Amino acid sequence: MAEVYRDKEIREHLEAGYFPHHNIIANLATDQTWSGLTATLQAGETITRTELVYVKNDGKMWLAQSDAAATMPAIAMFTGATLAANAWGRFLLIGFYREDTLLTFGLGDMLYVSDTVAGAFDNVLPADAGEQVQVLGKCLIGTHIIYFNPSLELVEIA
Length: 158
Known about the structure:
Blueprint: H1 7-16, E1 33-42, E2 47-48, E3 52-55, E4 61-63, E5 76-78, E6 82-83, E7 88-98, E8 110-113, E9 121-122, E10 132-133, E11 135-141, E12 145-148, E13 155-156
Antiparallel strand pairs: 1-7, 2-6, 3-4, 3-5, 5-7, 7-12, 8-9, 8-11, 10-13, 11-12
């Protein structure tokens, strides 16, 4: 069972050094780098760099696609090169990611899960009936650095 802390307890834990300080860097200088909160998760299928994943009922990560509620919501983005099915790898849960080749959006673009390509980002809202809209983040710095913070709230197009 998770512990619940009150304000005074949080302050005491911080002063005692129980919670490490994390410095998240937004202006990443190198291609294919990230800064943020990650988790080591298991792939259900082959996953490649920057692909978006959801959790299937087997507990593994599968490619998210907004054309069906069954493949949503995206909860993370893969940060490595390629991850084989059933292998474990590092996924970005929230933070910044720089990708000079695969991610090229306009500065300020909102980012969504693609309705046409499994695991892909899109800067165009899904528009067809039954498709799911999920805000993933925003292109903040230049055209290759994104702020990734996937909302778990979905809107279905009627």
